[in-house]
Specification:
Helices cover 10% and strands 66% of the residues. The chain is mainly beta. Strands 1-2-3-4-5-7-8-11 form an eight-stranded antiparallel barrel. The protein starts with a helix and ends with a strand.
Amino acid sequence: MKKLLIIVFLLGFGQLNAQVLSIGPKFGISQGDVKVMEGFKGEDSKMGYHLGAFARINLPIIYLQPEVLYTNTGGSFSDNTFNYDVSFDRLDVPLMVGMKLGGIFRIQAGPIASYLINGDMTADNGSVQKIIPPKEEFTFGYQAGVGLDIGNFLMDLKYEGGLTNSVNNFGQVPTDQRQNQLVLSLGFNLF
């Protein structure tokens, strides 16, 4: 009887924890752009991707959702001579604060910190230059969007805007690089 009570207690405690804390993998795509100045014009945005993990802490009215994501993004721009493609590899750490509306719909917003791991600028003549990050280690922005929870699956659609400069220049190209992007993510609650 004692063993049965312990098993029932542990199963009930595990179910309560699953309602308060969710953890799982997350991946998706994004579409970002590159802003440049002084004689250059922005061209096409670039389709990127991200993958990582999330945790969700469900509180009585709101939830907190920290994430850690490896993100690849970029864009392109041109001058009168060359077209340039830019690629960024970043570590992104968003902290979303949200509210559930009904059984499956969510709204959310929060800050994001990004660390530039690697960046390349490739001209259409084949030359490649490394992108020099600013002196600050992390740059900051915000995300806002909506989400759906269907069973153990989650889907988020967010807009990301930059607040601090993530790259001061691309080679010799001065820029005001605050990357804005649309982000579509899928995730799975492991528990």
